[in-house]
Amino acid sequence: MKxxxxxxxxxxxxxxxxxxxxxxxxxxxxxxQSGRKPLFDVQLVGTKxxxxxxxxxxxxxxxxxxxxxxxxxxxxxxxxxGDVEHxxxxxxxxxxxxxxxxxxxxxxxxxxxxxxxxxxxxxxDGKTCSTHWGFANQFRSMxxxxxLVDGHIxxxxxxxxxxxxxxxxxxxxxxxxxxxxxxxxxxxxxxxxAIDIDRNSQATFAMFRGQKAHSDITIKHAxxxxxxxxxxxxxxxxxxxxxxxxxxxxxxxFKQATHNSVLEYIHRIKIEAAKRSFESSRKNINEVMxxxxxxxxxxxxxxxKKITGLTPIEYRNKYNKQVHFx
Length: 326
Known about the structure:
11 strands
């Protein structure tokens, strides 16, 4: 029997508590149907008997308080909601408990923005982690010792797991089901819940907004210039000269402020503009490519797929309903 402790933190997302409970319970049912014994003993665990969520709209009744959990095999940290720093402070009693259970041999898995509480334990220092793509910059600022992996849906290292944004945590849950049972059972669960079992990137869903939460005013002006001249192809040297710096100084300050190199930032801005065009216009691939400052078709396709995980045609077909009525 595998003991699964699903934490019920304050300021967490109800669905990310209910979904893993539902999945592991369903897998037990599948195993019984196939003549096997159920594997998972699933319990909701917290620091209080009743946790109020969503400003009082919901309450979750925990089955065990953390001090009553003698042994567990898997700890699941659900997604946090709202101000993550405030949420971490509300749940600080969970932090030493998570560390203790990991030392005792338990595996620990965070779902989406549960990675913020997970990282607060120090267990992820020097290790890889995923979280929601929209909060990657904040995560890096708060936890510089953790190697955040852009775009990944599932990370696994030293009995520590994390997932990407929103419902992509289903892929991590299915990964754990496969690990504890077998591939056919995981496939059965994936089909039952209509989840693409082997999806491994959240890049298709990411929107690049440019990292502006820094205090380097000159670099902010450079970012704004790049964003408002998306059709142009400035070199790093030209940008450095325009903003009164040597190339080396400009690149260093840009990377320090945005966590992207200058060229990476330029490409991300151009591809984001291309994505918006594919989503809302009837322009063909070449028209969009020229609009965002590319002249080499192969380079455009390669860069687009590297950033989004899809080719330009695949992306347009996925997100532009107009193409289905032509």
